[in-house]
Write a structure and sequence with these properties.
The protein is of the alpha+beta class. It is built from 14 helices and 12 strands.
C-alpha cells in the first residue's frame, strides 16, 4: 500500500520526453500530484482497520455500531479503494514502459483521473465522521465505482493494474467481512449472505489471477477473459466493502441521508417529503404524474393540455419506475438539506424536455445516483422514453453541464410535431 514516487517521475529527461511525444503519451505531472496528495488514504485506512478490529473484538457489529462509525468506515473504504486503483494504473504503466516514466497514454490518464477525482472528498467525509457518532454520509449508497474507460484493445498495463488492485481490494474486503461475522451473533441470514458473497468473490478473483502469468503477454482471447473477470471482481469488492459496514444495504434497503422538512417557508420543496417515506409509485394511491417536474413549474405544466399525455407516455414506457423515483427522492432530499438549489440569482429554471425537471446548482459536495457532485456544477435529472418507440433505450441519468434559456417545450413522445 505504498505510493512512493521517485524524483525522475516528476522530472523526466529529454529522451523520455521525446519517446513519449512519439508514442502520443502525455505528462503525468497532474495525476502524480493527485497520487501524492491522496497517499494519506493509506494512513486513514490503517487507522480504520485497527478501529474496526477493536470494535469487533469488543462485540460491536455493523448492526450495533454508531451511524458515525458506519459513515467513517464507508468513506475510508471508498477513498482507499479509489486511491489503490489509481496508483496501480500508474505503477503498471511505469513498470511496463520504463522508457517513458513521467508520461502515460491519454486513456490511462483519463482512467486514473476518474479514480482520483473522488478521493479527497471521501477522505473529508471520513475526517468529519471520525469523532461524530451521529454523522451520516450525504447522498445515496452504495457509491458506484467510476466507470472503466473502454479501450480496444485494453492496454496490457491496465490489465496488470486491475489484477494488482483487485488483489488488494479482495484481501481487505475479506478482512472486513471476517470482522463483521466475528462480532455478529444474531443475524444468521445476513451473515450467510456475506459469507456467500465473499466466497464467490474470492473464487472469481483466484480464477482471474490464475489465468494471468507474470511476464507473459496473454492472447487477445485470454486477455478479454481475464479483463472481464477482474473488472467484475473489482466492482464486487468495492461494493462488499460498503455492504459490510452499511448492513441495511445488504437487505436491499437503499441508504439515503435525509432531513425531515420543517414547516413550510414558501419553498416548494418544503411540502415534498423525500426520504423516510417514498414517493408514491405508479398505480399506487397518491402517485403524481408530475412528480419529476420542477416544483416551481408544476402548475404551469398541469395546465398544458399536451403535458399530461406526455407524462403518461413516459411512465408507461419506464421499465423501472422504482429506480427513477429513488433517484428523484435523493435529489429532493439534497434540495431539502441545502446541498443543491433550484434557485440561481433569485430565479428558478426547468429543463425544456419532458418531464421538465428543475435545473439545480450544486452548493455542497453531494453524492447523487453514484455521481459525486461538486459545488458550482449544474445538472438536471434527464428522464426520457422518446427513443423507446424506435427500439432505443429508456434514458434515466443526471445531465451535467451549463444550461441556456430557450422558449422551446419538448414533449418527448417520439412523434412528429413533438415540440
Amino acid at each position: 500500500m505504498s505510493n512512493q514516487t521517485t524524483d525522475n517521475h516528476m522530472h523526466p529527461g529529454f529522451f523520455a520526453r521525446m519517446r513519449a511525444f512519439i508514442r502520443g503519451e502525455i505528462s503525468a505531472e497532474t495525476i502524480e500530484s493527485y497520487r501524492t496528495a491522496g497517499g494519506v488514504a493509506y494512513s486513514f485506512f490503517i487507522e480504520a482497520e485497527k478501529k474496526r478490529t477493536d470494535l469487533a473484538d469488543g462485540g460491536t457489529s455493523p448492526w450495533t455500531m454508531s451511524a458515525g462509525d458506519r459513515a467513517y468506515f464507508t468513506a475510508v473504504w471508498i477513498g482507499f479503494s479509489l486511491q489503490t486503483l489509481g496508483d496501480a494504473f500508474i505503477k503498471a504503466d511505469y513498470d511496463l514502459d520504463p522508457d517513458t516514466v513521467g508520461f502515460v497514454p491519454r486513456i490511462t490518464a483519463e482512467q486514473v483521473d476518474l479514480f482520483y477525482s473522488h478521493v479527497a472528498d471521501f477522505l473529508a467525509f471520513a475526517a468529519a465522521a471520525a469523532d461524530n457518532k451521529d454523522y451520516v454520509l450525504p447522498g445515496h449508497l452504495p457509491f458506484d465505482l467510476p466507470e472503466f474507460v473502454e479501450a480496444d484493445p485494453c492496454p496490457l498495463a491496465h490489465l496488470v493494474a486491475m489484477l494488482a488492485a483487485g488483489r488488494v481490494m479482495v484481501e481487505h474486503a475479506g478482512i472486513a467481512v471476517s470482522d463483521a461475522l466475528r462480532a455478529t451473533k444474531d443475524r444468521p441470514a445476513e451473515s450467510a449472505a456475506l459469507r456467500s458473497r465473499i466466497a464467490a468473490l474470492q473464487s472469481t478473483h483466484d480464477s482471474a489471477q490464475a489465468l494471468h502469468r507474470d511476464g507473459f503477454v496473454p492472447t487477445p482471447e485470454m486477455h478479454m477473459r481475464i479483463e472481464s473477470q477482474i473488472k467484475s471482481v473489482i466492482q464486487e469488492a468495492f461494493l462488499i466493502g460498503q455492504l459490510v459496514v452499511q448492513p441495511n444495504l445488504l437487505s436491499g434497503t437503499a441508504y439515503n441521508h435525509h432531513t425531515v422538512p420543517q414547516a413550510s417557508s414558501g419553498n416548494p420543496f418544503d411540502n415534498i417529503f423525500t426520504h423516510g417515506k417514498r414517493l408514491p409509485r405508479p398505480g399506487k394511491p397518491g402517485f403524481d404524474l408530475f412528480c419529476l417536474t420542477s416544483p416551481s413549474h408544476i402548475s404551469q405544466f398541469r395546465r398544458d393540455p399536451k403535458a399530461g399525455p406526455a407524462m403518461e407516455f413516459l411512465w408507461t414506457h419506464d421499465p423501472n419506475p422504482d429506480e427513477t423515483l429513488t433517484i428523484q427522492e435523493s435529489i429532493l432530499a439534497a434540495a431539502n438539506r441545502g446541498d443543491i438549489s433550484d434557485r440561481q440569482n433569485g430565479k428558478t429554471a426547468c429543463y425544456s424536455c419532458c418531464p421538465w425537471g428543475a435545473i439545480y446548482l450544486v452548493v455542497r459536495p453531494v453524492n447523487l445516483a453514484g455521481h459525486l457532485m461538486r459545488p458550482g456544477q449544474e445538472f438536471v435529472f434527464d428522464v426520457s422514453a422518446e427513443e423507446t418507440e424506435r427500439g432505443g433505450p429508456f434514458r434515466r441519468e443526471l445531465l451535467i453541464g451549463r444550461f441556456s434559456s430557450t422558449t422551446k417545450t419538448d414533449y418527448c413522445t417520439g412523434g412528429e410535431g413533438d415540440d
